[in-house]
Amino acid sequence: MGKQRVLSGIQPTGNLHLGNYLGAIRNWVETQSNYDNFFCVVDLHAITVPHNPTTLASDTFTNAALYLACGIDLQYATIFVQSHIAAHSELTWLLNCITPLNWLERMIQFKEKAVKQGENVSVGLLDYPVLMAADILLYDADIVPVGEDQKQHVELTRDIAGRLNDKFGSKDEPVLKIPEPMIRKEGARVMSLTDGNKKMSKSDPSDMSRINLLDPPELIQKKIKRCKTDPVKGLTFDDPDRPECKNLLTLYTVFSNKTTSEVAEQCQDMGWGQFKPLLTEVTIDALKPIQEKYKEIIDDKGYLNSVLKEGKEKAEAVANQNLSKVKKVLGYLPPL
Ligand code: AQP
Questions:
Q1: What is the pLDDT of residue 115?
Q2: 335 phi and psi, to 5 degrees?
Q3: Which of 38, 61, 67, 118 is least crowded, fewest Cβ atoms below 10 Å from its Cβ?
Q4: Is the per-residue pLDDT at 239 higher than 80?
Q5: Is 19 in the pocket of ligand 1 (CB under 6 A)?
């Protein structure tokens, strides 16, 4: 039996941060040798909120370079750009027509992001999860590694695929494969540095709310120094009224390669003045090799272009096959 297939992606909507790394990329890297992986830069998703056309292409390039810099290995993975493959948009349309509107209106991310946009909220934002379903279903993905915030969208993908299979497939021969989300506990939800109740996000207007993978050491130091804490001495994971404390201890646990109980014991009597330099040091050390590799890759545009060209060819072959399968069961006249 061949390897199971993994599909995941990140939007080029700004700087990738520790949430994207710990919630997604790090997990892709750690499990990549066990799977046949497809990782895309989801640039069609990036315009579901107002975007800057002068930076979209360079952000797309940066995302792809960061996938490689974080350790994605082309021996196990195909890296490609979503908009380079027309099948993503086409399958989205077909799935739109079988997805009940009220399934989309229930999506938490839509509700949260729509509030920020008021009257200007686009149909695209509502349709974001259907485009994500198309991304996943085009590749027959078995597994979708994501952070906790995207779990609801993977569940919706399962529902959409199930509905298409029920309506148009046969019991013995489902048209689309039903994927499973893969969510790792630690780092599944990295919180903002300025509000421990909000997730760290690229679109937060304050850059001080996140640590970006490409932040230089001095900036990381400044962000941790200024991040929100509380006046309580003694640090703990377990107090629900101290979300910032839990978040910062979790980051320290991940980057120091210690266990939660080791960190709980080490930090139980510490004050913030003692803890913050420790967190700063392990964070800078963890990001240093990624930043060095990124510089090498981004300086060699020819190499990155060739990775994306090859990725497009490989991904397109798989995507077109599955798109044809769906069109066939929906009854379309094949092109002559
Ligand atoms: N704070 C987070 N903690 C854990 N995982 C996270 N992810 C994002 N933020 C966190 C995971 O990163 C992957 C890609 O996310 P995305 O950029 O495609 O969309 P997003 O979830 O909407 O991420 P952002 O940073 O909040 O982007 P904006 O602000 O542009 O919407 C997903 O696997 C996600 O779970």
A1: 87
A2: -65, 150
A3: 118
A4: yes
A5: yes
Q: Closest Cα to atom 35, ligand 1: which residue?
A: 147
Active site (annotated) includes residue 199: yes
- For residue range 193-219, what is the model confidence (pLDDT) as tens digits? 999 999 999 989 999 999 999 999 999
C-alpha to C-alpha distance for 88 and 93, rounded to whole angstroms: 9
Alpha helices in 22-150 (DSSP H): 26-31, 56-69, 87-96, 101-105, 108-117, 123-137
pLDDT in tens, 292-317: 999 999 999 999 999 999 999 999 99
Residue 56's pLDDT is 97
- Say how far apart CA 97 and CA 74 lie, in whole Å: 36
**Residue 40 CA to ligand 1 centre (angstroms):** 14
Please tell me the distance from the alpha carbon of residue 251 to that of residue 188, in angstroms, as a whole number: 11
Q: Rounded to the nearest whole angstrom, what is the distance from the C-alpha of residue 204 to the centroid of ligand 1? A: 11
Q: Is 111 part of the annotated catalytic residue set?
A: no
**CA 85 – CA 316 distance, rounded (Å):** 6
Catalytic residue among 116, 185, 199, 223: 199
